[in-house]
């Protein structure tokens, strides 16, 4: 079992604000080094990481941070899920595809069969320092069935897809 920290903040934060709660980076990839994933759901930001964030650096009042163990569900178990994805197909040219098609093409490597039943397109507020970034964020909720416990566990730990710096990839699950 692998432990992580989960924070729930009552405000919408962007990547820069989320990363400000973590120590100064000694590498050029701190988000990846600390497995920092976040998702904005309405006006709430969920943050998952492998080190404890220091929210007191940003907020006067404390933010509740919970330590939890990332589950490793058995083959065939079913879960409710929520994830924000950036359903972009990059080859042969960059194009937006449906979130359900995007998840379907990745099921094998993510270790689960996804059945999304609710899709909400998210407003994208981010720009990347003048570089062209193709973002089309969609929050998907539905059910899934675990097909490969090890791959699925990695999906929970490290997130899925691209756009993690923009709030995509944090896969949340709950028992049905």
Number of domains: 2
Going across the biggest sheet, name each strand in turn: 2-3-1-4
Q: How many strand elements?
A: 10
Show unreliable segments. none
- So what's the CATH class of the largest domain? Alpha Beta
**Class per helix and strand makeup:** alpha+beta
Over all CA atoms, what is the radius of gyration?
16 Å
CATH superfamily of the largest domain: Crispr-associated protein, domain 2
CATH topology of the largest domain: Alpha-Beta Plaits
Instruction: State the separation between the terminal residues, measured CA to CA.
Output: 21 Å
Largest sheet: 4 strands, antiparallel
Task: Summarize the helices and strands and which ones pair or pack.
Elements lengths: L1 E8 L5 H5 L10 H4 L3 E5 L2 E6 L15 E6 L7 E8 L2 E2 L5 E2 L2 H6 L2 H4 L1 E10 L16 E9 L2 H10 L13 E4 L1
Antiparallel strand pairs: 1-3, 1-4, 2-3, 5-9, 5-10, 6-7, 8-9
């Amino acid at each position: 079992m692998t432990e992580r920290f989960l924070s729930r903040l009552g405000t919408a934060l962007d990547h820069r604000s989320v990363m400000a709660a973590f120590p100064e980076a000694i590498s050029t990839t701190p988000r990846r080094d600390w497995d920092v994933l976040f998702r904005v759901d309405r006006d709430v930001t969920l943050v998952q990481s492998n080190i404890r964030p220091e929210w007191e650096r940003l907020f006067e009042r404390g933010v509740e941070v919970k330590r939890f163990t990332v589950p490793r569900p058995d083959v065939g178990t079913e879960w409710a899920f929520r994830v924000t994805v950036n359903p972009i197909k990059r080859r042969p040219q960059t194009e937006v595809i449906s979130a359900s098609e995007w998840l379907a093409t990745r099921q094998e490597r993510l270790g689960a069969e996804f059945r999304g039943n609710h899709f909400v397109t998210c407003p994208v507020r981010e720009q990347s320092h003048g570089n062209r970034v193709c973002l089309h964020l969609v929050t998907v909720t539905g059910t899934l069935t675990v097909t490969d416990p090890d791959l699925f566990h990695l999906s929970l730990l490290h997130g899925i897809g691209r756009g993690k710096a923009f709030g995509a990839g944090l896969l949340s699950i709950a028992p049905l």
